[in-house]
Amino acid sequence: MNLESLSRFVTLIVTNVIKIAGLYVGVRAALQPTPSAVVLAYSAFMMAGAQLSETTLLALIERFFGVKGKEK
After folding, report:
1. Cα end-to-end span (Å), the chain
2. Domain of 7, in residue numbers
3. How many domains would you assign to the chain?
4. More confident residue, 30 or 3
5. In the 8-state DSSP scheme, what is residue 1?
6. In the prediction, which pLDDT does 72 show?
7. What is the pLDDT averaged over residues 45-65?
8. Neighbours of 32 (CB within 10 A)
9. Can you give the pTM of this predicted structure?
10. Nearest to residue 58, comparing CAs of 22, 10, 20, 2?
């Protein structure tokens, strides 16, 4: 496994764990008798922030290591 593959793998694992945690927090909050808007907003922020971070980090990794196997 080369450094590019390892970087992509770690990035995807970390960001997907954050997304799943955000989803879990959001579902638990939504199922409460009185859902907290702050907790739901925090959950949405976790998931959106993780997606933005994932997209940005993967673009940086591709730029740093160069795009291989893709035609421009």
Report:
1. 25
2. 3-62
3. 1
4. 30
5. -
6. 46
7. 89
8. 9
9. 0.78
10. 10
